[in-house]
Amino acid sequence: MTRVLLVDDQDLVRAGFKTILQSEPGIEVVGEAANGADAVERARELQPDVICMDVQMPGMDGLEATRMLVADASVTAGVLILTTFDRDDYLFEALQAGASGFLLKNARAEELIDAVTIVARGDALLSPTVTRRVISRFAAEAPAAAAPPAKPVDTDAVRDLTDRELEVLKLMAAGLSNSEIAGRLYVGEATVKTHVSKVLMKLGLRDRIQAVIFAYEHGLAG
Fold first, then answer.
1. CB-CB contact of 118 with 127 (8 Å)
2. Range list of β-strands (E), 73-181
3. How many Å is the Cα radius of gyration of the chain?
4. pLDDT tens for each residue of 30-77
5. Which ranges constitute the DSSP H helices of 33-127?
6. Which of 53, 67, 129, 198, CA to CA, is 20 to 30 A from 95?
C-alpha cells in the first residue's frame, strides 16, 4: 500500500486529490497539511511514501518544505510537486530542492495516480518535455560565446559503465523516455529500466534528474 501525504492550502483541492487517489486500491491518503511547516511535521510523524506538495502556500512554501524534507534523514518519502503554474522557475527550483517529480494540477486523474506510483517506487517523474527544458536551461545559462568548455568526462565515475549503460545515459540526457530508448535500442522496456538503475547505482546518483544533469555537466549530452 502506497501511503500519501497531501499538502495544499485549499481544502477543496486536497479533497479532490484525496478522492482521486483513494479510488486506486493500492493508494491510501494517510494525512493532510495546509502549509509547508505542517507538511514537515506531518511527514516526520506519519512517514508517508509520497508527499504531494503545493508550491504557493502561506508561511513556509512548498519549495522550502521540500528542501527541508529531502535533507531530513528521518523522512524517506519522495516529493511530487503539484502546481497550477507551468513556470520554469517553479520547475527548476523544485528539482534543485530535491523533488522527485513535477505535475500540473490540471493533469488527468490517471496521470496523478501514475505519478504517485512512479515516485513511490523511487523513480523520478521526468517526462521528455521536462528533460528538454532542463537541458535548455543549462544551455541558456551558459551561452556559447561565453561558456567554458564542458567538464571533461570523469573517467573515475563512468569507467564502470558498460557501453550499453553509457548509451542509455546519453539517450536519457537527450530527453528520451524509457519506452523511446527501448525502441531506439531494440530492447524491452524492462531491460532499459535495468540499465537506468545500474547507471544511477554506479554513478551514485539519486534519480533520473541527477543523471541528466551529470551527463550535461560532463560533456555526455547532445
1. no
2. 78-83, 101-104
3. 18
4. 999 999 999 999 999 999 999 999 999 999 999 999 999 999 999 999
5. 36-46, 62-71, 88-97, 109-120
6. 198
- Is residue 168 within 8 A of residue 178, CB to CB? The reply is no
Q: What is the pLDDT of residues 115-135, one digit of tens each?
A: 999 899 887 776 656 666 766
HSE value, Cβ hemisphere, 13 Å, CA-based, for 194? 7
Query: Could you give the domains of the chain?
Result: 2-134 (3.40.50.2300), 155-218 (1.10.10.10)
- Residue 149, pLDDT score: 42
How far is it, in rounded angstroms, from Cα 186 to Cα 149? 33
Residue 209: pLDDT band with limits 50, 70, 90: confident
Q: From edge to edge, which strands make up the β-sheet containing 78-83?
A: 27-33, 2-7, 50-53, 78-83, 101-104
Residue 141 class from Cβ within 10 Å (0-12 exposed, 13-18 middle, 19+ buried)? exposed
- Of the candidates 206, 182, 183, the residue with the CA atom closest to the CA atom of residue 195: 182
Nearest to 216, CA basis, from 142, 165, 126, 128: 142
SS3 87: coil
> pLDDT class for 154, splitting at 50, 70, 90?
low
The grid cell for 29 is: 491518503
Measured distance CA(116)–CA(79) in Å, rounded = 9
